Structures are given as structure tokens and as C-alpha cells.
Amino acid sequence: MTARRRATAIDGLSRDHHAFMENDMLTMTQVRTLVRELSATKVLSVYLDTRVTDPAMRDAWRPALNTALRGAGATLSDDDRGEFALAAAHLENAMLPESGSWGAPGWMALATANGVHFADELPTRTPTMAIWRDGPVIAPYLRVLKQHHPVIVAIVDSRSATLYRYAWGRLDALSDMRVSVDALDTGVPPRVDSRGTSYSAPRSSTGTERAARRRITAFRRLSTVLADRLAELARDGSWILIGGTPAWSRFAGAALPAHLAARTHISATLGLTATEDEIATAAKHAGSALRATRGTALLDTMLEVAGAEGRAVRGVPATQRALRTSAVDLLVLSPAFLFTEADEAESSVHAALQQGARVEVLSGEAAEQLDRAAGGIAGKLRFALDPEPPPAA
């Protein structure tokens, strides 16, 4: 999916804000800046479900949007109604891409009376909504950002590693990395035990043994360069998927820095002959699985370890109190909470971002656990809070 954003910069906003217009998606740092700079400004936030399953219904989004806009403007004062109309007019100019049809299942925009601050196609569906309020409605966008980190894929054999990046449903080939070895090819890779430790294959002849050693030595050089390259590509938090010849892919995974272990999946089924469609599917599933595993571990640590130290809160009242005292370092929410408690979720997200906290929307089992254990919202704290005094008698 290639974003087809139409957006304009607005006078008076920071240089960082102007930089937003050149990126495919906002980073969390840019979201934080956007929220801070528009917090006291009336913003028309629009999210659209633009998925088309029937060509005859490809314009069905427009009546749905018009209904949402009428609802947002129905109870406004005269002053607000004028600003709202200007924002809606700016929004219309940013609406469709040049092709005349949507290239993604979702779309969002943030507009004020002065113009459009941000507009972008989204790689996932989103309910159609239009909201006019102080500051942007950003919580639905965070559901998209949870998939922001790409999956870096390495298809490995004894001589080379072919690299790809998968993001937003699209697979892009990156540079190949190759190490030459002697022409003699024994077909004997190193064996790797269950702990990832390599050891030489059984000796069959002096020539075979020397060739195997040369291949292992060459691959060690490759795996060192590959590990550095993967660490560089994944420095923004991306996931890593390694496939190819099973023994060599495990060897390559073992060479990665320790801090990447929790973000790496070694596939036993993604082979050298995999098509790009198969690689993309494997990358999508690996990213989902790694996100779910990380989310569960994160939540367990928050609720058990940090909670035991008084450095975590759960549920709306406790989280609200922590946000009021600027104690929150990490706010986590579930998709269900974003949907059923939209106003509370939005105000919590704004408060967290304005105090420099990280915000994550969990998914899968981690989200279900958060709903069960904390009502869908919890926070990791920078410092333990003093006990709340009992109510006056």
C-alpha cells in the first residue's frame, strides 16, 4: 500500500510538524507533537471505512461521511459552526487520491479552520466517524500505529542472505548480501542443536571436511555482517523473520545481538524457494505473533513486577489519578476499551502523550488479559504514588 496523502502545512506550527507531511505514517514522537500543538485548537477529526467489496458500492463512503459530519455539526454554536464549515471544506480538498479511488481500506484526516494538518490512507479498516473537539482524536490512529514497525525478512543459505521489508501489506526487496566460497560444494551444512550451538558435521573425507570448514568460515563472516545489517534495519523496533535453509537460518539467528532475541522469529517452514506472496504471508503472521508475545510479556511485567513495587496502576480511577500527577511512563489500552470508552480513552491518551509517556494498544491475548485484569487500561509509573487519603468523614 502506497500512501496518497494530500496535506498542507499551516503557518505557526513547528518545523517538526511541517516534517510530518513528508512521511508515510506518523511516528509516536510526531503524534505527541501533533497532540501538543493542537490541544487548544478546534479540530475536525475524520476516520473513514473506505474498503470496497462491490465495485458498484465504491462511493458508499460518501453518504456515510456526510451522515457523520451532520452529526458532528448538529449542536454547534454559530461561532463553532463557521469554523466547522471551513474545516469541512478544507477536508473535501484532501479527500480522494489522484486515481479517483481509494488504495487502502481506511483513511483519516485532521483539519481545522486554517487547513488540513494531516491526512493519510490507513492500511486497516476503521469505523467511519467525524468528531469536532478541542485537539485531535488520535486514539483510533494508535490502533494503526501498533502495526507501525515493519518486519525485516532474511532468507538465508550457506552463501547469501536476501533481505526484504514487509510493512502495510507490501513486501519490498532490499539489498542482497553474498559471501563467495570455493567452488567445491559438499552440501553439508553445520548442524545446530536445540540450544542454537553449531558444531561440525561428521567427517567423511579430508576434502569434504576442508570444504565444510570453508563454508562455515564464510558463513560466519556473512552472519556477522548480516547481524549488523539486521540490527541497523530493526533499530526502530522492527520485527525480524529469518527463513531459508533451516540449519543456516538458525546459525544466522544465533549470531544476532541478544537484545533482538525477543523480536526475532526463526521459521522452520519459510524455505529458499518461497515466493514473494509466501514471504509476505509469513512476515505478516510473524509480526502478529511477535507483537502478541511481546504484549503479553509487557503486561505481565507491568502488573506483577511493577505492581508489586507500587509502580503500576490498573483501571480507570487509578490510571486517571496517575495521569493527573504526571506519574505515567507507559499507558496501555485494549481495543475494546478504545471502542466502549472512547471519550475516556481519548482523554487518557492525550494526558499521557502530553507528559511524554509512551502509549501502546495491545492486541490478541494480551488485550484480553488487560480487559480481564484491569478493565482495559493500565499504566506503568515513573515513581510510586503516595496512598490516596481516605474520604473525609
Question: How would you sum up this structure, described in words?
Answer:
The chain has 393 residues and is of the alpha+beta class. The chain folds into three domains: 15-145; 151-274, Nucleotidyltransferase, domain 5; 292-381, 60s Ribosomal Protein L30, Chain: A (2-Layer Sandwich). 41% of the residues lie in helices and 21% in strands. The protein is built from twelve helices and 15 strands. The chain has helices at 15-20, 28-38, 61-73, 78-93, 139-145, 206-233, 246-254, 276-308, 316-324, 335-340, 342-354, 364-374; strands spanning 42-49, 106-112, 115-122, 129-134, 151-156, 160-167, 170-178, 191-192, 198-199, 239-244, 264-266, 312-314, 328-333, 358-361, 377-381. The strands form four sheets. It has a five-stranded mixed β-sheet. Strand 2 (106-112) and strand 3 (115-122) form a beta hairpin.
SSE blueprint and pairings:
Elements: H1 15-20, H2 28-38, E1 42-49, H3 61-73, H4 78-93, E2 106-112, E3 115-122, E4 129-134, H5 139-145, E5 151-156, E6 160-167, E7 170-178, E8 191-192, E9 198-199, H6 206-233, E10 239-244, H7 246-254, E11 264-266, H8 276-308, E12 312-314, H9 316-324, E13 328-333, H10 335-340, H11 342-354, E14 358-361, H12 364-374, E15 377-381
Parallel strand pairs: 5-10, 10-11, 13-14
Antiparallel strand pairs: 1-2, 1-4, 2-3, 5-6, 6-7, 8-9, 12-15, 13-15
Helix pairs in contact: 6-7, 8-12, 9-11
